[in-house]
Amino acid sequence: MEFGDEFLQLNNGIFLLSKSFLIFQFKFQPLTFITNIVMYHSRLVRVLSHLFFWLIVVVFYYLLFSRNSESREVSLILSAGLMPVAVGVTYFFNYVLVPKYLWRKRYARFFLFSFYTLLVSTWLSFLIVFFALIYAITQKAYIDPSVIHPEWQVITLHFVVFFAIAVKQLKRSFFMQQEKNQLEKNQLTTELKLKEAELKLLKAQVHPHFLFNTLNNLYGLTIEKSDDAPKLVLQLSEILDYILYRCDEKLVSLGEELANLKNYIEIEKIRYSGKLKLNTNFPQETGNLKIAPLILLPFVENAFKHGVSHFPGFAFVNIKTNIVETTLIFKIENSKNPAINKDAEHSKGVGLKNVRKRLDLIYPEKYMLKIDKTEETFSVNLTLQLE
Q: Where are the transmembrane segments (predicted)?
C-alpha cells in the first residue's frame, strides 16, 4: 500500500513537472515556441505541396502512356520508371546546379554539368523504354508505337523536369522581389524617420537662435528705456505663440508664416529705427498654400544681424515676396560693412546652415537657392515650389 502511494506521488510529481515545463516554455519562451510551430508548419506545407505535384506528374505519365494500350502494366512500368528520374534530375538542378553554379555566375560549369545530367537522364529513359518494350513483347500486349518511341519518352521526361525547374525559379524570383520590395520599404521608412528626427533637431535649433537674437534686442531697448519696449514684448509674445503652438505640423499656412515674419520685422524696426531703411513687399492673398514653418525666418534674421547691427552707418534691408501660381519667390537684400570680412560668418551661420538642410530634406528638387555677395551687399533669392 505504501509502495502504491509512493508510485502515485511519483506520477503526480512527473505530471506537475511536465506541466510546469510546458508553462515555462510557453510563458518565458513564447517567441521560440511559436517560431518552432510556424517553421514546422511551413516545412509540412512544403513537403505536402511537393508530394501533390509529383502525384499529378505520375497521373499525367500514366494517362499519357496508357492511351491506345492493351497493357496497363506497361504504362505503370513507364510511369514508375520515369518518375524517379524526373524527381532526381529536377532536385539536382534546383538544389545543386542552379544555386551552386548559375546563381554564382559560374556559367561554364553549369552548362557542362547540365549537359552530363541531361545525357544521363536520356540514357536512363532509353533504358526504361527498353525494359517496357521487352515486357510488352513477352506479354504479347499491343502498345501504341508513338508512346514507346524513345525520343517521345525523352521529350516527356524533360518537359516535366524543365516545368518543375521553371516553377521553382519563378517562385524564387517572386519571393526575392517581395523581399527586395520589403527591404526598400524598410529602408525608406528608416530614412523617413531619420529625416523627421533631423528636422525636429533643426527646428529645435531655430528656436533658441531666434530667441537669443530677440531677447538681445529687448535687452537693448530696456537699457535705452525705450517706450517701444512694451510693443516689442507684445510682438515677441505673438511670435512665441506661433513657434510653440503652431509649428508642430510639417506644413503650416503660408499666410501664418508671413504674418510671423512681419511680427519679427516689426521687432527689428523698433530695434534699429534710427539707422535702418526698410522696404517690404508681401502678397495680400496667399490662398491655401502651405509651407514648412520657420523656413524663411533665418534669412531675415541674418539680414538684420549681419547687415544692420554690424553696419556703421545707415543700413538698408529690402524684402520682396511674390507668388506665381504655387511657386513662392522670396528675395532679400541687405547692406554689408565692407571694412569687416564677415562673409564666412554670414553664409555659414547657424540659421543659414539649418535652413539649407531643411530645404534639402523637405523640398528635394523643389527649390532653388541663390546667394550673391558683393563688397557692400548680401542678397538671397529663394524660389520654392509649395503645396
A: 20-40, 47-64, 76-98, 110-137, 152-170
Q: Is residue 360 in some structural domain? A: yes
Q: Would residue 99 count as lying in a domain?
A: no
Output the nine-digit C-alpha cell for 171.
517562385
CA distance 268 to 281: 16
d(CA 342, CA 349): 10
Does 377 fall in a domain? Answer: yes
Domain span at residue 369 reads 192-385
Side chain identity at residue 179, one-letter code:
E
Q: What amino acid occupies position 348?
A: K
What's the predicted TM-score (pTM) here? 0.51
> Cell digits for 123?
540514357
HSE, CB side, 13 Å, CA atoms: give it for residue 15: 6
- Is 214 among the domain residues? yes
d(CA 60, CA 79): 9
Query: Is the Cβ–Cβ distance between 241 and 328 less than 8 Å?
Result: no
- Measured CA to CA, the distance from residue 111 to residue 267 in angstroms comes to 80
One-letter-per-residue 3-state SS of 77-136:
HHHHHHHHHHHHHHHHHHHHHHHHHHCCCCHHHHHHHHHHHHHHHHHHHHHHHHHHHHHH
The CATH number linked to 279 is 3.30.565.10
Contact in structure between 53 and 164 (CB atoms under 8 Å): yes
Beta carbons within 8 Å of 202's beta carbon, 6+ residues apart: 354, 357, 358
pLDDT in tens, 119-131: 888 888 888 777 7
Total structural domains in the chain? 1
Q: Which tops the pLDDT comparison, 202 or 211?
A: 211
